[in-house]
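Appendix B. Chain record.
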Amino acid sequence: AKDLKGFMLRHDARKATAPPRSKAEKSTKIKIDEPPFKRTTPKNVPYTRSGDKGTSMLLTGERRRKDDPNFEALGSVDEVCCVVGVVYAHLDDDEDYGPLQDQLLDVMSRLFDVGSHVAKPRFVADDGKEFVANGVGDGISPELTEQLEGWINAMTDEMPELTSFILPTGAKAASHLHVARTVCRRTERRMIELVDDKTCDPNALQYVNRLSDYFFTAARWVNYCEGVPEIQYQRKLHSTQRQRIVRSLQKEKKDDD
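Structure tokens predicted for this chain:
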């Protein structure tokens, strides 16, 4: 009891001698839209707090709900780009993949271009106006698709011919390339609506479509370079069947002369 009484006396004494608090200091209510924490760095940070209510801004300056078709497509483009980054990280530094690493870096940059285009929708009517591939999101060059086809042709020409369905597995990078292929297909499905609305360049859709074919071929190429066999699809003829149909993929080693 004496300790409690002493505490109360000291508390009252401090309260009596403390300077009066301002009205702002007395207010302890925290507003949801005004967080009490401030940025402690002058450098750019990834948050703006402007999207906390479920909207975001396109490159046109227009704000839309985050489940808007443009943002759905944009998110899918971003996702496939990130999967390609995982593929790149899983490539063996001691293995010779030819130009594959450089190609993957280029693909990630071009996906940034596609994302910029999707984030900058503009209506192009059937009056002669066209999308322009100017590097700032107004369109996508058809030459990018032709480049992918050239890469596909080069890899395909080196590998054994594909004669059966194969399972999406093998080396780690190859398996992730198959994931990239499926995410790319979803991205294509998200972009079709935008092309139909004439707010997205058909060349962007064509590039994404061909990109999924490139990922499939690149997955085979990685297995080929690493000597990992392909496991072929097998019909279930008998419930006791366990044998896998494996096709050897072995890249020829060139002698150092």
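Further analysis of this model is presented in Appendix C.
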